[in-house]
C-alpha cells in the first residue's frame, strides 16, 4: 500500500474515533455527574441536554400577562390544579414535582406539548396527588395525640429526590 495513503487513512480513523468519543460524551454524560445533579436519566430534548432553567424562563415569559389567571384558563389539560394561579402551577412543577422526585420536566412531559398525557409518570403524579390528599384529609386526621396541629405529608416526604422512595436507611 502507498505510504502516504496509509497515513492519511490512519489520521482519518483517529479523527473519526475522536468524534465518536465526543458524541458519546454529549449523548451520555458521566453517570456520576448526573447522580450528583440529582437527575436519574440523561434527559435530552432532540438529542440536546434538556435545560430546565431556560425552559421555565421561556414558559414564565410566555404567560407573564396571565400568570395570576386560573391554570385551566391559561393551560390546556388541567384536571387537578383548577383554580391555582398559572404562575404558581409552574412553581409546583419545578419544586413540588421535579425537585422532590429528582427528575426534570421530561420525566413526565413531552417538551413543549405539556398538555399531552403520553408519559405514564404524568398520570401517576395525578394519582399520587389524590393519595396525598387522602392521607392528609382522612388518614392523618384519624390519628390521635400527634404533636403537630396540622400533620401533613407531601411528595418530598416520601420521595426525597428519588423516583422510588427508600424502604430502608442503607
Ligand atoms: C412528576 C411528574 C411531573 C413533572 C416532573 C413535571 N410535571 Fe408538569 N404536569 C404534571 C401533571 C400531572 C400535570 C397536569 C396537572 C393537572 O391535571 O391539573 C402537569 C401540567 C403541566 C403544565 C400544563 C399543561 C397544559 O397545557 O395542560 C405545564 C405547562 C407543565 N406541567 C410544565 C412543567 C414543567 C416546565 C416541568 C419541569 C420544570 C414539569 N411540568 C414537570 C406532572 C409533572
Ligand atoms: C406515602 C409515600 C408517597 C408520597 C407522599 C408520594 N409518593 Fe410517589 N411514589 C411512592 C411509591 C411507593 C412509589 C412507587 C415506587 C416503585 O416503583 O416501587 C411512587 C412512585 C411515584 C412515581 C413513579 C416514579 C417513576 O418511576 O416514574 C411518580 C411520578 C410519583 N410517585 C409522583 C409523586 C408525586 C408527584 C407526589 C406528590 C403529589 C408523590 N409521588 C407522593 C410513594 C409516595
Characterize the structure shown.
With 170 residues, the chain is mainly α. It folds into two domains: 1-37; 39-159, Orthogonal Bundle (Photosynthetic Reaction Center, subunit C, domain 2). 53% of the residues lie in helices and 2% in strands. The protein is built from seven helices and two strands, in the order ααββααααα. It has a two-stranded antiparallel ribbon. The chain is extended. Bound molecules: heme C (HEC) (2 copies). One heme C is lined by residues 52, 55-56, 59, 75-81, 93-94, 97-98, 101, 103-105, 107-109, 114-115, 121-122, 125-126.
CATH fold label of the largest domain: Photosynthetic Reaction Center, subunit C, domain 2
User: What fraction of the residues are assigned to beta strands by DSSP?
Assistant: under 5%
Please tally the helical runs, counting DSSP H or I stretches of 4 or more residues.
7
Low-pLDDT segments: 25-41
Say which CATH homologous superfamily of the largest domain is assigned: Photosynthetic Reaction Center, subunit C, domain 2
What is the domain total for the residues? Answer: 2
CATH class of the largest domain: Mainly Alpha
Mean pLDDT: 85
Strand order of the largest sheet: 1-2
Amino acid at each position: 500500500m502507498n505510504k502516504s495513503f496509509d497515513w492519511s487513512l490512519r489520521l482519518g480513523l483517529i479523527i473519526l474515533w475522536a468524534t465518536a468519543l465526543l458524541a458519546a460524551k454529549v449523548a451520555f454524560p458521566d453517570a456520576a455527574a448526573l447522580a450528583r445533579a440529582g437527575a436519574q436519566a440523561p434527559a435530552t430534548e432532540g438529542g440536546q441536554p434538556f435545560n430546565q432553567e431556560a425552559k421555565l424562563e421561556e414558559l414564565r415569559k410566555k404567560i407573564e400577562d396571565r400568570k395570576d389567571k386560573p391554570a385551566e384558563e391559561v393551560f390546556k389539560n388541567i384536571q387537578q390544579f383548577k383554580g391555582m394561579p398559572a404562575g404558581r402551577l409552574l412553581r409546583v412543577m419545578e419544586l413540588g414535582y421535579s425537585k422532590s422526585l429528582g427528575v426534570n420536566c421530561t420525566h413526565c412531559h413531552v417538551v413543549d406539548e405539556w398538555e399531552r398525557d403520553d408519559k405514564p409518570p404524568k398520570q401517576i403524579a395525578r394519582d399520587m396527588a389524590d393519595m396525598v390528599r387522602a392521607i392528609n384529609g382522612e388518614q392523618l386526621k384519624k390519628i390521635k395525640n400527634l404533636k403537630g396541629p396540622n400533620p401533613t405529608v407531601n411528595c418530598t416526604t416520601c420521595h426525597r429526590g428519588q423516583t422510588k422512595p427508600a424502604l430502608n436507611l442503607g
